[in-house]
Write a structure and sequence with these properties.
heterotrimer; A mainly alpha (219); B mainly alpha (276); C alpha/beta (264); A: 219 residues; mainly alpha; 78% helix; C: 264 residues; alpha/beta; six-stranded mixed sheet
C-alpha cells in the first residue's frame, strides 16, 4: 500500500492514535511526577516505616515488567472484585512504573547537592522548611532535568502497552496491528508510527537539552 | 569532622531533639498503623473474594508447578541472554560508528541510535511479527522476540558504551601512543576495556530492561515465564495467584540484578568520574 | 518569626559566646572533654592544635552544627536549645565560614549574600541587595556579583562566604579553617579580609593553621589537644613561652616542618 493510499484511508485514525499516545503520555507523566515527588519525600522522611514502604514501592514498580503489571491489572484485579476500565488499567500501569523511576532520578538529583551547603544554610539561621525551599529543592529539580526528559520519553514508549488492550481510539502502536488486520498496510503502516514516535522523542530530547543548558548548575 | 563523604540524606535532618523525637515516634506509630491497615485491607479483599482458598494456592506445593514455571523462566532467560548479546554486539558497532572519523558513519550511527531509542519495543515486535512474514521472512518465535528486544536495547547500549569510553582519561591514549601502539590497538586494548569497566552497572541496568521486554513474548507465542503462567492458569483455574507469583518472580530477578549493579557501581567508583 | 531569645543577664559584660562543660563523643571516642570557653564582645580567639585535637569540632559545636552530649551553649545570654525556631534564631546571630566555602552553587554571588537576610530576616529585596553590594565591595569581589560560585577562584569564594556571613549582622563569626582548602597564593587575600574585620572590632573565633596570622590578630590563643583545652594564653606568651609541654612540642614540630620546607 502506498503512503498516500494509506493516509487517505487511515489518516484520521493515525491522527487520533497520535493524539491518544500524546494524551496518555502527558497524563501518565504528570501523575508519575506527582507520585514520584510524594514517594521521594517519604523516602527521605526521618520516619523509618515510611522510608521502608516507599523503598518497597520503588523496587516493586521499577522492577516489574510493564506487560506483567498491565495483565495483572486487567485480568487479576477482577478476581478481587476490582474491575477497572481498560483505559484506567493502561493509565495506571504506565503511571506507576515511571513514578518509581521519577523518584530514583530525584534522589540522584538530591545527591548532587554538597552536604556543606545544608550546613551553611543552617548556620545562616534557616529552618528546615527554608533550607529545603532555598537550597535542596531548586538544586534537585535543576539537576534532574535531563533525567526527567529521559523519563518523559520512556513514559511515551511505555504507552505502547495500550496496544495490548482493546482501546478506542487505539494508540500509535495499536494502529499498526489494527491496519494490518484490516488491510495490508505493510511496512508503510509501521513506518508512519515509527516516524511519529521518533520525531516526538527527538523533539522532547532537544527541548530537554535546551532547558538543561539554561538551568544546569555549574560545579 | 570532614564533610567529604557524607551524602545529603545524612545531613538533611539534624539529630532530633526531644520534641522532634516525640514527633518522629508519633509519626512512626501512625505510619505503622496505616501500613498495617492497608495490608490488612488487601488481605481482607483476598479473603472476601475467596482468593485465599487453598485451591488457588495448593498448586505451588507441587514440584511440577515449579518445574513448569522454571522451564518458562529458562525460555525467558534464553531470550534475555541472546537479546543482551545481540544488543551488546549491535551497540558496540553503533558506538564505533558514532565515534568514527567518517562523517557518514557518524551520521548513520547517530540516526540508528536515535531511532532505536525513540521507538517502543512493542512496535519493533509487531514489525517482526506482522511484517516480516509479508517479505517471506520466516523466523522462529525465539528470534521474533529476541531480535526486536535486542534492537530496542542496542541504541541505549551504544550510548552507554560511548559514555564509558569518553570517561577514560585522555592520558591513557597519550601514554599508549607514546609507547608506539597504533590507533586500533590503543582503542581496543587500552581505552575500551577501561571504559567498559566503568559502565558495567549501566549495562546491567539495561539487562533489566531487556528482561522486562521479554514479557512481550506472548505476542509471538514463544513460551516464556509469562506464557507458561498462562498455561498453569488454564490448568488449575487459578489466575490471580499464578499471576501474582509470576510478577513476584520477575520483580525478584530484576531486583537482584539491580542490587548487583548498585554494588558494582559502588566498587568501581572512580573519583571525579560520573557515568549516567 | 521566632521571638527574641530570653536573655538571662542584663549586664553589659556577658560574653557573646559561652560554652559550659561541653562533652561530646563520636561513638566511644571522647572528642570534647569538659570544654568551657567564653568569648567577649570584640574579642578575637584563635584555636590551634594538631589535627584530630577537636578544634574544628569545638568550632562547629558553637552553633550546634555538631550535637553535644552534655553541657550548655549560651549565645549572648540566651541558652541555645537543641532544636526548633530558637535554635535557628540564635544560629542566625552567629556567622560561620567553612573550610570548603559551601556557597549555594545554584545561586549568583549576589543571591548567595542576600538569600538569608531576605528569607530569614525578611529584609526587602532592594535593601538586601544594596547591603550585599556594599559587603561584596568591602571584601573586594563586587565585580563578580552576577557570576555563580563555580566561576570564582577559591579565594574569591571564601571572601563571598565572609560577605554572606556579614550580611546577617552577626554578633560573632566562626571561622573553621578558612584557608585550609586554598591554594597558597590565595590565602593572603582571605586573611587580609579577616584581619580587617578583626581591626573593626568583630568578635571572631578562628580555627587555623596560619601561625603568623594567629600571632598578629589574636587577642587570645587557645591550644587544644586530645579534646581538651590545654592552654589559654596571649599570643605573645603562647608563641614565645608556651606553658604546656604539648604546646611546646606542637610549636616545635611546626618549626621543624618550616625549616624542612625552607631547606628543600
Amino acid at each position: 500500500m502506498s503512503i498516500v493510499a494509506l493516509l487517505t484511508q487511515f489518516g484520521d485514525r493515525y491522527l487520533s492514535a497520535l493524539f491518544t499516545t500524546y494524551k496518555l503520555t502527558a497524563a501518565a507523566f504528570a501523575l508519575a511526577v506527582v507520585i514520584g515527588v510524594a514517594v521521594t519525600v517519604m523516602r527521605i522522611a526521618p520516619v523509618k516505616p515510611l522510608r521502608m514502604a516507599a523503598e518497597f514501592y520503588v523496587q516493586v514498580f521499577r522492577n516489574i515488567p510493564g506487560a506483567a503489571l498491565l495483565i495483572f491489572l486487567v485480568y487479576a484485579l477482577p478476581y478481587l472484585n476490582i474491575v477497572l476500565s481498560y483505559h484506567v488499567c493502561v493509565l495506571t500501569a504506565i503511571t506507576l512504573i515511571p513514578s518509581a523511576f521519577c523518584s530514583e532520578y530525584l534522589m540522584a538529583g538530591m545527591n548532587t547537592i554538597g552536604p556543606g551547603q545544608i550546613e551553611a544554610a543552617r548556620s545562616l539561621g534557616m529552618t528546615f522548611a527554608q533550607l529545603v525551599r532555598n537550597v535542596v529543592l531548586p538544586q534537585a529539580v535543576r539537576s534532574s532535568v535531563l533525567q526527567m526528559t529521559n523519563l518523559l520519553v520512556a513514559t511515551m514508549l511505555t504507552t505502547a502497552l495500550a496496544s495490548q488492550v482493546p482501546l478506542n481510539p487505539t494508540d500509535l502502536t495499536g494502529i499498526v496491528s489494527y491496519i494490518n488486520t484490516h488491510a495490508v498496510g505493510g511496512v508503510t503502516a509501521f513506518l508512519i508510527s515509527a516516524v511519529l514516535y521518533c520525531v516526538t522523542a527527538i523533539v522532547i530530547g532537544q527541548v530537554g537539552n535546551l532547558i538543561d543548558r539554561k538551568v544546569r548548575i555549574l560545579r | 569532622m570532614s564533610t567529604a563523604n557524607r551524602s545529603i540524606r545524612d545531613v538533611l535532618y539534624e539529630p532530633p531533639g526531644p520534641k522532634t523525637r516525640r514527633r518522629i515516634r508519633i509519626a512512626t506509630a501512625v505510619s505503622i498503623v496505616v501500613i498495617v491497615v492497608l495490608v490488612a485491607e488487601v488481605v481482607r479483599q483476598f479473603y472476601i473474594a475467596g482468593q485465599l482458598s487453598p485451591k488457588y494456592w495448593s498448586l505451588f506445593a507441587r514440584y511440577t508447578t515449579w518445574r513448569f514455571l522454571g522451564r518458562g523462566l529458562a525460555g525467558t532467560m534464553e531470550v534475555a541472554v541472546a537479546a543482551s548479546a545481540v544488543a551488546f554486539a549491535a551497540g558496540l558497532v553503533l558506538m564505533l560508528g558514532r565515534i568514527s572519523r567518517y562523517k557518514i558513519l557518524r551520521g548513520l550511527s547517530t540516526a540508528l541510535i536515535e531511532i532505536t531509542r525513540g521507538i517502543p519495543t512493542l512496535l519493533f515486535i509487531y514489525f517482526f511479527f506482522l511484517l516480516a512474514p509479508q517479505f517471506g521472512l520466516k523466523l522462529p518465535a525465539f528470534w521474533k522476540i529476541t531480535l526486536p528486544v535486542a534492537i530496542s536495547a542496542a541504541g541505549v547500549v551504544a550510548e552507554v558504551l560511548r559514555s564509558g569510553v569518553n570517561a577514560v582519561p585522555k592520558g591513557q591514549t597519550e601514554a599508549a601512543v607514546s609507547l608506539g601502539m597504533r590507533g586500533g590497538s590503543v582503542f581496543f586494548k587500552i581505552v575500551f576495556p577501561q571504559g567498559l569497566r566503568y559502565v558495567v552497572p549501566a549495562l546491567i541496568s539495561e539487562i533489566v530492561i531487556v528482561l522486562k521486554d521479554t514479557t512481550f513474548a506472548y505476542v509471538v507465542n514463544y513460551s516464556d515465564l509469562m506464557q507458561n503462567a498462562k498455561v498453569l492458569i488454564s490448568n488449575y483455574d487459578a489466575l490471580l495467584s499464578v499471576y501474582l507469583v509470576t510478577a513476584v518472580i520477575y520483580i525478584l530477578i530484576n531486583y537482584l540484578l539491580h542490587r548487583l549493579s548498585v554494588r558494582i557501581a559502588g566498587r568501581n567508583r572512580i573519583p571525579g568520574v560520573t557515568i549516567e | 518569626m521566632a521571638q527574641e531569645p530570653k536573655r538571662t543577664d542584663a549586664a553589659q559584660q556577658i560574653p557573646v559566646i559561652e560554652l559550659r562543660h561541653i562533652d561530646k563523643y563520636f561513638g566511644s571516642l571522647h572528642v570534647l572533654k569538659n570544654v568551657s570557653l567564653s568569648v567577649q564582645r570584640g574579642e578575637v580567639v584563635v584555636i590551634i592544635g594538631p589535627s584530630g585535637s577537636g578544634k574544628s569540632t569545638l568550632c562547629r559545636t558553637i552553633n550546634r552544627l555538631e550535637t553535644i552530649d552534655s553541657g550548655e551553649i549560651i549565645i549572648d545570654g540566651a541558652v541555645m536549645p537543641e532544636e526548633g525556631k530558637m535554635l535557628a534564631k540564635l544560629r542566625s546571630e552567629i556567622g560561620m565560614v567553612f573550610q570548603s566555602f559551601n556557597l549555594f552553587e545554584h545561586k549568583s554571588i549576589l543571591d548567595n549574600v542576600t538569600i538569608a537576610p531576605r528569607d530569614v530576616l525578611r529584609v526587602p529585596r532592594k535593601e538586601a541587595q544594596e547591603e550585599a553590594m556594599r559587603l561584596l565591595e568591602r571584601v573586594g569581589v563586587a565585580d563578580q556579583a552576577h557570576k555563580v560560585p563555580a566561576q570564582l577562584s577559591g579565594g574569591q569564594k571564601q571572601r563571598v562566604a565572609i560577605a554572606r556571613a556579614l550580611a546577617m549582622h552577626p554578633k560573632a563569626i566562626l571561622f573553621d579553617e578558612p584557608t585550609s582548602a586554598l591554594d597558597p597564593e590565595m590565602i593572603g587575600e582571605v586573611l587580609d579580609v579577616m584581619t580587617e574585620l578583626a581591626r573593626e572590632g568583630m568578635t571572631m573565633v578562628i580555627v587555623t593553621h596560619e601561625m603568623n596570622f594567629a600571632r598578629r590578630v589574636a587577642d587570645r590563643v587557645i591550644f587544644m589537644d586530645g579534646g581538651s583545652i590545654l592552654e589559654e594564653n596571649t599570643p605573645q606568651e603562647f608563641f614565645s613561652a608556651p606553658r604546656s609541654q604539648r604546646a611546646r612540642d606542637f610549636l616545635n614540630s611546626l618549626g621543624e616542618r618550616e625549616k624542612q620546607v625552607r631547606n628543600v
